[in-house]
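User: Sequence for Transporter below. Tokens please.
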Amino acid sequence: MKKVVLGALLTLLALGVHAQTKKWTLAECVEYAIQNNITVEQFELDLENARIDKSDALGNFLPTLSGSVTVSERSGLVVDPQTNIITSATILNVSPSLTSNMTVFDGLRNVHRASRAKINEIANQYRLEDLKDDIRLRVANAYLQVLSNKEALKVAQAQYKVTEQDLLRTRELVESGVVPKGDLLEIEATAANQEQQIVNNEALVLISRIGLAQLLLITDYENFDIAEESFDVPFSDILDNSAKVIFDKALTFRNDIKLSEANVQLAEKDLQIARGAALPTLGAFLNYSSFYTENSVTPNILDFQTQLENNDGISYGLSLNVPVFNGFSTRNSIKRNKINVLRTKLQFEQDKLDLENTINQAYVDVTTFRKSYEAAQKTLDARKLAYDYAKERFDVGLMNAFEFGQAQARLDNAYATVIRTKYDYIFRLKILEFYFGVPLSLD
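Assistant: Structure tokens for Transporter:
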């Protein structure tokens, strides 16, 4: 028994350690966000409703069937249904019936309703997928922000370690009287500033992790973290394509554009349905009925089943309904739906313009941020050389601690600029690739 309990405790401990040390990749974050997003769940319910609506529309083509049974009793002067003789009695009457109705022609409204229901299901699918696309971009942006802050923290920590070594060496030189104490104070000030920067970067990492966790609806902020990985600027040939080429391809698969186009088709179907209301409606019906009576004065000659068989009858026919005037309701409905068709077409064109503007802006952003990143990298290389030169001079006493601290600060700023421009460029690169149909990935 003790072994069982010990084994269970060890298993729970192992699971707990595993849960605390789990590191989330971008793909895991995106998948989790989509599966747990409340709006996604709401849109999925809307999609299920659209499928039910399609079933309703298909059901309109089928005939209806209903059954009824009427049981009544009358006392006094009555007509006996069996003999058609007026008599004073109590008569029990049982009348079962079956009725079937079917629409033969309704101005093709059922046809258009069925077609509209299919389009509406597709439109809801586009709407759901468009939402998922937005979630993917938001998660990718938040994920890259965490990576950026973590990299900035690592650089700050590495720079602080270098400053610690300079601090130890300068303290020894001050104690031996080689350099003035002012140099030590300058190095100490630089170290304190770097410590503050580390604290700030740690706070930024925490805040960005919490922001990503909230986007994923994860409340265990302390144990949530992303995968530790060094991330370089990925190779991409997306700029080999013009913004026009990217836009033309985006038109073929973007869910927001497909949704906008589907909305035009829905409006056109609504117009066809409204026009159908101005046409005559032809329906068919079939009725089967019978009756059983029981007279309190005259005994029944025939039993229940026999009476039903002898008294049954079938009626059938057609009914034609021609709309003549309904207070301008049909005419105004047609006018409103015409306006709605024009509105959805204008919105469709506006959505295409918005997409084109977004892609053009993304294209310019990629070009601009790539140049900014390349310039920042060149500046960093120059700052490194300047820092190394300054350190050599400081080590031999040809530069005071203040000037050396300035070189250190310029190097720190250069590192920070490289990290910021690097992830700005990466995110905009991923956005442009996303519009070209490339799945989000950090590979």
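The two ends are 50 Å apart (CA to CA).
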